[in-house]
Amino acid sequence: MERETGMRRKLAAGNWKMNGTSAALGELDMLATSHPAPGVDILVCPPATLVSAAVRTVDNRSIRIGGQDCHSETNGAHTGDISAAMLRDAGATAVILGHSERRASHHETSEDVRAKARSAQKAGLMTVICLGESLLQRQATNTLDIIGAQLSLSVPDSSNGQNLVIAYEPIWAIGSGMTPTPDQIGEVHDFMRDRLEQRFGSGVGRSVRLLYGGSVKAANAAEIFGISNVDGALVGGASLTAADFGPIIAALEAA
Ligand SMILES: O=C[C@H](O)COP(=O)(O)O
User: Using CA atoms in the order 47, 48, 50, 51, what is the torsion angle rounded to 10 degrees?
Assistant: First the structure.
């Protein structure tokens, strides 16, 4: 497998999911203090309730703050939802979209994800669009078909290397302690790179960062970051504390 890193700056992204009250901001402060000038980009996506406070905690240091979802509309009668413009107004510069937990629990389709991503990119947010197959789909050797369809339907035409990041997150690897083999991860990442280059041309296609997500921890980070076309990780559980996320960031810096 050919290793192709291009000029892409690596990205360590943390997804806190539905975890964290204001007490958790101490972890963010510790993370920012311990990484004053990181050799990689760091993104932390806390619950929406903490976005503004997280932005204040980071206080223009080396960590950017993102949301975990947004609505496709800018405003309106959508009780409980928040828009990309609202996230931006709160100081977020990125948003995770199409996470498998939202595709499952909120019945989000790839078309929904594309509409949200279009709105988020228009609002100036970097979109981290998540794709991934189920265990049954992998066992049926349908992984590349599933990823290809999700990639083509979820990613808007307005995407480029600055406003689009793709996270490959096999559903069966999320929070399970299981990870695909390096060859399996590499196969999907090489495939996504090819597809992006075919659609957007080699310049844009090569500049989009591809993250792996699913049970990333300090113990497996270095091996994962050595895989072809893996430009970083989207980390769930191990992003909640500076003690767990810090070593993953260090592994990415060393890769
Ligand atoms: O968004 C993050 C992923 O769902 C991975 O979660 P995890 O690191 O807890 O497996």
Answer: 120
pLDDT tens for the chain, 255 residues long, are 334 445 899 999 999 999 999 999 999 999 999 998 899 999 999 999 999 999 999 999 999 999 999 999 999 999 999 999 999 999 999 999 999 999 999 999 999 999 999 999 999 999 999 999 999 999 999 999 999 999 999 999 999 999 999 999 999 999 999 999 999 999 999 999 999 999 999 999 999 999 999 999 999 999 999 999 999 999 999 999 999 999 999 999 999
Nearest protein Cα to ligand 1, atom 8: 236
How many angstroms separate the first and last alpha carbons of the chain? 17
Residue-range definition of the domain harbouring residue 47 = 11-254
Pocket lining: 234 vs ligand 1, CB cutoff 6 Å:
yes
Q: Residue 110: CB within 6 Å of ligand 1? A: no
CATH, residue 20? 3.20.20.70
Mutation test residue for ligand 1: of 43, 216, 235, the one with most atoms within 8 Å of CB? 235
**Is 211 inside a domain boundary?**
yes
Residue 90 lies in a domain: yes
171 pocket-lining for ligand 1 (C-beta < 6 Å): no
Residue at 164 is within a domain: yes
Spatial CA neighbour of 146 closest among 155, 137, 156: 137
> Residue 148: phi, psi to the nearest 5?
-60, -45
Question: How many independent structural domains does the chain possess?
Answer: 1
Domain annotation covers residue 1: no
The two three-digit tokens of residue 36, written as one number: 């004053």
d(CA 113, CA 124): 16
